[in-house]
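Methods, example record. To illustrate the input and output format used throughout this study, we show the complete record for FAD dependent oxidoreductase domain-containing protein. The sequence lines were provided to the predictor; the line carrying structure tokens was produced by it.
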Amino acid sequence: MDHKHREAKQIVIVGCAAGYYLSHHPHFRPVLDSITLVEATRIAGGASGKAAGCLAAWADPPCLARESFHLLAELATAHGGEQLWGYRPINAVDCDAVRVHVGDADERTEPQSEADWVAVERLKWYKPPGETAQVHPYLFTTSLARLAQESGVKIIVGKAEKVNVCVQGRKVHSVRVQSTLKAEIDDVPATNVIVAAGPWTGKLLPGVPVGGEKSHSVIIQPPKPISPTILFFDPGNLNEDGDNQLEIYPRPDGTVYLSGQTDYGLPLPSSTMEVQPDLERCRKLLANVELVAPELGRSRTITEQACFRPIVNIKGRDPELGPLLDLTPTKGLILAAGHNQWGIQNAPITGKVISELVFEGRSVSADISQLNPTEHLSSR
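The corresponding predicted structure is encoded as:
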């Protein structure tokens, strides 16, 4: 393709930070192309701002995770991520209710003593050093949006209501947007539409099997800083309904992020602004800390919050396969949704792949063949 004499691209992104990679792709021409990011409420108003921010080379799916882990390090180096969004390498350890796991098949390395705020006899195994890191998800996502704006991306605060498709030729031509700032509905012209609206993807594109599950988290301020080690607590048989699930994430600012309480089968609110935490779920999170780290039980609670994680709802499909990500049968329409708990971790490779699909017509940086959504779309 002669990229010097091609047609202009009008790219509309619904709920995705792919604007950064689109605006940094070598074929993007600001004088010719336009990129518009549509956000229903605010940047990082949902799971992108309320997630744990765990980054892992060992995350799911493997076809995205390792390359994305490297891209996250590159972004931090290029843009001062250590200062701007709390990027740092960090250790990760599994902890169980009873120490009975020496020699388990999943034991990767012998437990160390760096997690000095948890009883060492509960430690199960460490992830290999160098394969885990973290960011503050809200700061990371908003920083990428700002960097995208600086490269020419326009941000519209409004609800995407419909992707308009030409009946003849079966291709996108615009996105209908209800402005949040004014009582107007506009059709934003588009040659390419990227739908990455998280759990709301199925609302915008009926027939797409992506929904959401509600997760709770609490941010606390401990009496004194704790060592930078992520802890995953496996309750064993303490509680079969999962009420004792717990993940602990110390952050560079001295706070600690707790998560682990999930509600299944709840109706999806109309927007992120309507998602409210169940305070009983948050209370259980705080109570569970006492099981593994009594020292943290004396912490001050800063925030109790909830969000909906985007889930691929396909019967029999292994959740570890990851999101639906690829071109669709509708020309110009790209789907990128269903990242579950790995949305922040896999955001860079997702954005880079999207930029390649738009400007090169195929994914170059990752093999996404197992993520193709075509056979799962009932109406697209």
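Annotations derived from this record:
The radius of gyration is 21 Å.
Helices lie at 19-24, 47-50, 62-79, 81-84, 137-150, 201-204, 279-292, 347-360.
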